[in-house]
Amino acid sequence: MGTVLITACPHDSPTIFGYFYLRKAADTLAEYGHRVVFLRSANLANFRAALIKYDPRLVMLNGHGGSRSVTGCSGEVILGVTGYDPELGKNITRENPSWMRGRIVFLFTCNAGKEIAPRLIEEGALAVVGYRSDYIFLSDDKSPARSQKSKPFFLAPLMFPIILAMGGPVGEAVEAIRDAYRKYIAKADASGEDLVAKYLYYDLENLVVYGKMNVTL
User: Fold this and answer.
1) What does the CA dihedral 61, 62, 63, 68 come to, rounded to 10 degrees?
2) Contact at 8 Å (CB) between 106 and 121?
3) Where are the beta strands (DSSP E) in 66-119?
4) Residue 176: φ, ψ to 5°
5) Phi, psi dihedral angles at 104 (to 5 degrees)
6) Taking a C-beta distance cutoff of 8 angstroms, is the pair 88, 64 a contact?
7) CA-based nearest residue to 8, from 62, 69, 88
8) From CA 41, how far away is CA 153, in angstroms rounded?
9) Averaged over 9-35, what is the pLDDT?
């Protein structure tokens, strides 16, 4: 069984939703016997300490993402590559892509599938999944527990850790995400929810995967 490290800091509306659903993913991973380390207050120091202490096979990062970086709490960059990150308006002066060497990585943020994801592969990550543009979801309630409209936007990508938890390889897990998006798009189309279908399709089109498709948790 593998070890999973999840970072999710619920400090604004998008990250509150991300935190809610990643807690559900953590429960599923644990049910299948995997060890889960959950950083609710992730910063660079405790992220590094958790990587060293637990050596996770799967790392799932939720926060705000740009082309070159992913943030933890208080906007601190916890994973990045040097250069100017236009989406976050930050100049990244120190980089740490080598921290993901030998790991499966899910960048559950906006934009990080664009530049940082392939760099992680260059530095030895086994496989990386992310979104190359904004990750968009709709909601009909501020509470993720009550919001019905937001569900498909999170249930689809969380097929990734579920399939990995069950022993499936990265390639199968990514196809499960895509299949789930297609199912929810068809359901939204059938019920006349054009905007939901539009943005689910947008997220599907911006989902990217790099690395080895046959690796497992």
Assistant:
1) 40
2) no
3) 69-71, 77-80, 83-85, 90-92, 104-108
4) -65, -35
5) -90, 135
6) yes
7) 62
8) 24
9) 95
Q: Tokens 């993913």 identify what position?
A: 25
Put simply, whether the predicted model's pTM sits higher than 0.90 gets the answer yes
Task: Give me the percent of the chain exceeding a pLDDT of 70.
Answer: 100
Give the strand pairing for 83-85 and 127-131. Answer: unpaired
Q: Is 125 helix (H, G, I), strand (E, B) or coil?
A: coil
Structure tokens at 4: 């999973």
The tokens for 152 are 């498909």
Are 92 and 137 a contacting pair, CB within 8 Å? Answer: no
The domain ranges of the chain are 3-211
- Between CA 132 and CA 125 the distance in angstroms is 18
Tokens 């189309």 belong to residue: 189
Nearest by Cα to 139 from 22, 14, 23:
14
Structural class in CATH, domain 3-211: alpha beta
